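Course assignment 3, question 2. Fill in each field.
Student: A.L.
Task: Predict the tertiary structure for the chain below.
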Amino acid sequence: MKKSILIYIIVVAFFTFMIGFVLEKGKSLKAESQLVISKQIEKNNVKPKSQTEAINPNIWKQISNNIHSPLGLLLLQIITILLVSKIFGSMFSLFGQPSVVGEMAAGIFLGPSLIGFIFPNFSNFLFPPSSLNNLQFLSQIGLTFFMFIIGMELDINKLKNKAQSAIVISHASIIFPYFLGVCVSYFLYEHFAPANVSFLAFSLFMGIAVSITAFPVLARILQERGLTKTPLGALALTCAAFDDVTAWCILAAVIAIIKAGSITIALITIALTIIFVLIMYYGVRPWLNKVYDKLENNDSKNKTLVIIVFFILLTSALTTELIGIHALFGAFLAGVIMPQKLSFKELLTGKIEDVSVLILLPLFFALTGLRTSIGLLNNTYLWSICGLILFVAVLGKLGGSTFAAKLAGLPWKESFSIGVLMNTRGLMELIVLNIGYDLGILSPSIFSIMVIMALLTTFMTGPLLDLIEKRSKIKNKII
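Answer field:
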């Protein structure tokens, strides 16, 4: 042991001495460019700066340059967004709201509506327009993983058990607000649609924008209130699941029509989408179940299974993007065809959900907030339009769902509760709005109005449920 230590010390000391010797000898050497500079200094009689004087003034400049580099700025943006999102999520949780509502509000806070308005120089430094492409790229990756998780959470067998009532309620909660959205777009088109957008594209998109339900936010609200295992919670989740599937199918068709530019190409796109869905459901799904049965309970092969799943996820997303709808539909479909076994879901959810939900989704909320400028609503007319759209959205979704639930045989209390829950838009609404913004269908002003509507309809869910419960207790006491 002592001999090994002695040899180690001798070797380190010898090579340290040799390195120092070479460095000392190298001090007298000069590169050709340095010789030229030295001659110019002697010719002009300029006193050269010392090494310390040359380096110190550039330290802050170097730090500033590093911060403004694409990677440095992106890391600073991510840290800021995660910190603000966590603070807002905790604040809103104190008021009985899901943390996702706080994260949505954090995006508005960081955008031009608040920080950009109060501290424009700081906002331009932290979120210059040239840097938003990097944020958008990361947020799209996060949304792709998130939609895959949403697809995995759909239990098709449970949907079949409550299919009759759920389909009636969910489809009524889509068709009625969709009709109202198309009607209101007739009066908004001339003043709010971008110049190169047709009325067909604008009206179809406005219809889907007011008829969407946020399945994940609704599920989180029910979980926090302990309603997931109650008949009301089960029916609400089933309705929201059918609502999501139907709404995403309609949105896929709308995007196909808008991107295609002609009915013929749109029909081809829709036909290709149907073929792809059939291949995934009746071809890839049974094969994946067989693969999982072979690899189940084999830790050494879990990595192989995860690689296969990620390959299916990315290939499905790429296929729907190439077909002409959106990569998110492919990710959602990939989640739907995954095996429904609990062990499989636990294996994948733990690997994907934390990164997508806790890190990448707040980036999406921040990007939405950076696109939202409440300052654009600078007169009474625009705020009246915002109120009109909010009224139409609530009337269509809450009213349509409540009336359909009552027709399905539910009591008024449960019917109204279903309506309130189905009126929750949240994250899914923001995804739809950002798709419309990226496609150039929504102008900045109408985009900001729709984001406000999404926030308010999500925020009102908790208080309305509390009000229903309070009135029910008062009524029971009187009886």
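Instructor remarks: Residues 189 and 199 are 7 Å apart (CA to CA). The two ends are 89 Å apart (CA to CA).
Grade: pending
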